[in-house]
Amino acid sequence: MKVMDKNLGLEEVQKLEGHTDRVWNVAWNPAADGVIASCSADKTVRIWEQSSLTRSWTCKKLLATASFDGNTCVWENFATDSESVSVLRGHESEVKSVSWNASGSLLATCGRDKSVWIWEIQPEEDDEFDTIAVLTGHSEDVKMVLWHPTMDVLFSCSYDNTIKIWCSEDEDGDYNCVQTLSELNNGHSSTVWSISFNAAGDKMVTCSDDLAVKIWKTDISRMQSGEGYVPWTHVCTLSGFHDRTIYSVHWSRDGVIASGAGDDTIQLFVDSDSDSVDGPSYKLLVKKEKAHEMDVNSVQWAPDKESRLLASASDDKMVKIWKLASEP
Q1: How many CB atoms lie within 10 A of CB 43?
Q2: pLDDT, tens digit, 9 for 90 and up, residues 175-186
Q3: Does pTM top 0.85 for this prediction?
């Protein structure tokens, strides 16, 4: 099945019920097939696992955790008895997002206090974490942080309508803001909610309260060859598809962008393979009406591109698993 096949649709595989309040986010385990974590306003994180026999999903573990207290908890041993091995304190108020770098040596956090923190794990000290940077460039709450998939370059997005890019360019390893994507350079005009990268890491997708999805690109080979930082530039804007705030975007490993929004829909976009005089363009592949009964807060593709599975989370207290498949 090709991504550009005309008769593709999102088929609901299973509803995962258990949370008692709105579900904020979902994430797949990148190292284990068929394992999903979800977090909720009910103050729990649930770990869901797919049975190898029945292929159905069940909640295998329930973790009590918090973020509104300004702390970040690091957990381990999900396969047996989960244990909180570190509590990272520093943010003055709620922590909005966390992200590991590709090697697992750095953890980034961001919060309502407008700051971004970078923590480094110390394996020789029983996996303690040291603060190596506190970044204060945003003027409003920071909604999300995300490390680049192949380089130690950090991205953050905020209520101040911008995306900031942070990296270390000196021998001291100090992180600084090397670029700000704002309305002045074809960026968003309202709160930026989510960021995701394509498989190659040379393109980025962002979404916003301005009802737009934006595509960005850079020359990744130049950065990887040691030429220094290469700026990201705007490719195109997808607007007129969602009619309420777009809360989440995620790029699959085979090139499909999923978006979830306050209009209760999930929409999928692909490269149209027909560049116009204005540059590359993307087209709507699938629109799933009433994917949830309320706002869709998070969409996330499974890391195994062959499965074509998508997880979503919503204010309706539900996590859903979807499959991109050919329709009859």
Answers
A1: 14
A2: 999 999 999 999
A3: yes
